[in-house]
Design the sequence.
């Protein structure tokens, strides 16, 4: 009986030693999840663009190659003057552009980009009013923080007016943004 036990143990040990490495691997054979190449986000923007602006935004991104992404955004909200009674106002914008994303780790990325688009700002106040529409260039920087699929994206955007409304291709405003994104 002892001889049979020793012989069986020896044969088993020999077969394990000479087995294919993949046959005795303790790691999962499942391939890693693919890196997300698209995203959609909903957020808010607060700032100044010929008025005080508060808007909701919807953004989408598509990876072009490497760290270069195509970015699109639409926003809709309100606009108002400063320090005076206001009688309604609105803000609407649509933009498209590119962004470069650099990640320290996948959970912490920085984003820098530039969009070109069209925006409309209108409000009527007691002493002042605005009704401005035109082309804008929007340089932007921000963070992209979170899990592989769910992200938080705070940022800051400059507004460069291309329409000759009180500025001639000059700095016209600043927006603070925050969004929650889903990547796939």
Sequence:
């Amino acid at each position: 009986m002892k001889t049979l036990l020793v012989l069986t143990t020896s044969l088993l040990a020999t077969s394990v030693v000479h087995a294919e490495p993949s046959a005795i691997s303790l790691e999962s054979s499942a391939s890693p999840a693919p890196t997300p190449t698209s995203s959609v986000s909903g957020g808010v923007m607060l700032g100044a663009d010929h008025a005080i602006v508060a808007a909701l935004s919807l953004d989408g991104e598509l990876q072009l190659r490497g760290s270069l992404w195509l970015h699109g955004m639409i926003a809709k909200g309100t606009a108002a003057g400063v320090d005076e009674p206001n009688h309604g106002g609105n803000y609407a914008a649509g933009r498209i552009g590119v962004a470069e994303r650099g990640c320290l780790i996948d959970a912490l990325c920085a984003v820098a980009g530039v969009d070109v688009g069209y925006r409309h700002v209108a409000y009527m106040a007691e002493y002042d009013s605005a009704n401005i529409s035109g082309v804008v260039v929007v340089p932007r920087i921000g963070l992209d923080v979170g899990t592989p699929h769910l992200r938080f994206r705070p940022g800051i955007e400059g507004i460069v007016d291309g329409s000759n409304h009180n500025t001639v291709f000059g700095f016209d405003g600043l927006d603070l943004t925050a969004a929650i994104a889903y990547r796939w």
